[in-house]
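User: For a benchmark we're assembling, each entry needs the component sequences followed by a predicted structure for the full assembly. Here are entry 17's components. Please fill in the structure.
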Amino acid sequence: MPDRELKILLLETCPVRPGQEERAWSALKARFSANPVPAAWYWLFYPTWRGLTVAVLAIVFIPVMADYAGFSLRPESLATADSQLPGVYATSFYSRSAQAQVVWLNGMEPATDKPTYLDPTSVVSAPKGDPNSF
Amino acid sequence: MRKTLRFLILFLAFSGLGLGAGFAGEKVWVGLFLAQNQSPPFGVQLAPEGMHRQLHEVFGFKHYILLKAQEFGLRNEWEQWFVPRRDFFIRLEPLPRQPGEPRFVDYQIYKDGFIIAKGVYQPRDGTPLFINGPDFHQGRFIFVLDAR
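Assistant: Structure for entry 17:
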């Protein structure tokens, strides 16, 4: 159906009342020309100089002040632990509840009261019949 | 003017909180504790209350008997030994420090004459280092390094 016939058909079935078109246009113009009240934080969501300033402050100023305040940016546990003996496992961690650094060693033989190799040789009883033995 | 003054006061106040870390680390106190659940014999020296709480949080024993302690100056940048027992001791060596940088201490733990672990530790005020040692009878040996 051509546009002209469609327009005639529409006018016959839905006639436009006098002044209705002007009122619609004026309402639309009024809506476009009105200055909307901006939200208080609208500048946060648009690239403005004010937003850029706040962003720079947030990125630079807050971590620096936090560092001064004691919330250090460095890791809390600065102790390292490396095992040097097969079978012995070394782990280091920071205990937040104890506020202490911890080095945990696993796999060691229990300590005893027996003489060690560092004791004087006279303490260690030599097996009989072996003159080369300590 | 008032804003500048307020900023200056805040800056100085927050700066003061970080001073502790700057002055910490001139000395380190090293102690060997025997942790156990049995009641300790009369007359032994126990861990101070604050340290007891920290040790209990980590190891869970009821009593911490101080066996031997020694204090080391961290300005002496050479190796120093703490030998409370012949079969379990520790070697410390304060590493050279650049001005304005934190002090680090190299440590090596020896058991039965063999080095079993080594590492680097940064002495910090209020943050001791606990080193879990071998079991002994019903308890356990624990090294404590504390910045003074």
